[in-house]
Specification:
There is one protein chain. This protein is α/β, with parallel strands linked by helices. It folds into two domains: about 1-225, Spore Coat Polysaccharide Biosynthesis Protein SpsA, Chain A; about 230-300. Helix content is about 40%, strand content about 20%.
Length: about 325
């Protein structure tokens, strides 16, 4: 059985479209754990009303379990809550702003069934507004680069040449499949990130424990309803999460090197080339996040490991 974990937070429109897409899947042996991640009352009511309409009522009654959180737990907290309340041997962390081809689940489940040695995998993810443009095909962890978490094929045209599965360092939390048996060994998503970096952390821990078979399956394709932009959440958490990751896993010289790399990248990203000026809001928001990441990373480094393994059956 497949358990699909989806988070909703003030984003009912995307969540409904995602559920409609899942409703049309050729593969039927799955459950949806929908985490209502402290949405405002307006969005929460809209979602509940729509799920009980004729269009999705049967699907809602038979497939969807809603769990309500009184506070926004972030991506990792909401995902962990969903995983703990799921039953499947295979887990899918799925963004609510994704749309899928009808054989998406069937193709991915078949891949895991035929390849028992695979631990974590993801499909090809393209932009929804330009379906021939790749969003991300997983990522590489590059310790000596500006881009510590380097997305694969981001922004490239999907020419269909890639057919065979290929190894990646981490799968994107947008559509991350992982076996429950692996989570029992390595723990759930790290509870310090809130968002960004938690998927890389999960996959890196799996690799350190010997579960290195992490793949992108390019023949399977879904679409992410997003646009390239620097959001407020990006400014707050992007550099913060990277520094936490560095302090968790790297030696002191590499931490210092990565700090310099991230600071330089932060300055580059702060340049508004169209207006020939510095984006001070991005600069100061990101600096604050980076410094907070250092503080949290140091604290996390000296604490004993706490990977939320308990309560996972």
């Amino acid at each position: 059985m497949l358990s699909i974990i989806i988070l909703n937070h003030n984003d009912t429109y995307h969540t409904i479209n995602c559920l409609k897409s899942l409703h049309k899947q050729s593969y039927k042996n799955f459950e949806v754990i929908l985490i209502e991640n402290a949405s405002e009352l307006f969005y929460k009511k809209n979602l509940e009303v729509f799920l009980k309409t004729n269009e999705l009522n049967d699907f809602f009654q038979n497939k969807i379990k809603i769990i309500y959180s009184n506070k926004n737990l972030g991506f990792q907290g909401g995902s962990n809550l969903g995983i703990k309340n799921s039953k499947g041997d295979l887990i899918l962390l799925l963004n609510n702003d994704t749309i899928h081809e009808t054989t998406f689940l069937e193709d991915m489940v078949n891949f895991f069934e035929k390849n028992q040695c695979i631990h974590i995998a993801q499909p090809k993810i393209c932009f929804f507004f330009n379906k021939n443009l790749i969003w991300q095909n997983g990522g590489k962890i590059k310790k000596y680069s500006f881009n510590l978490f380097t997305p694969i094929d981001c922004g490239k045209v999907d020419n269909g040449i890639l057919k065979k599965p290929f190894k990646i360092d981490y799968a994107i939390g947008c559509a991350l499949f992982i076996r429950r048996s692996i989570l029992k060994k390595i723990g759930l998503l790290e509870d310090i990130y809130f968002m960004y970096g938690d998927d890389s952390d999960l996959c890196y821990r799996a690799t350190l424990k010997g579960y290195k078979n992490i793949f992108c399956i390019p023949k399977v394709k879904i679409y992410h309803n997003t646009k390239p932009k620097f959001s407020k959440l990006f400014k707050k958490y992007y550099f913060r999460s990277r520094m936490i990751f560095c302090f968790k896993f790297f030696s002191l010289p590499l931490i210092i090197w990565q700090f310099l790399m991230q600071f330089i990248q932060l300055i580059i990203y702060s340049q508004d080339l169209k207006k020939f000026k510095i984006d001070y809001d991005f600069f100061f928001s990101s600096i604050k996040g980076l410094l907070e990441g250092i503080k949290l990373g140091i604290r996390r480094r000296i604490q004993k490991s706490n990977q939320n393994i308990s309560n996972l059956s």
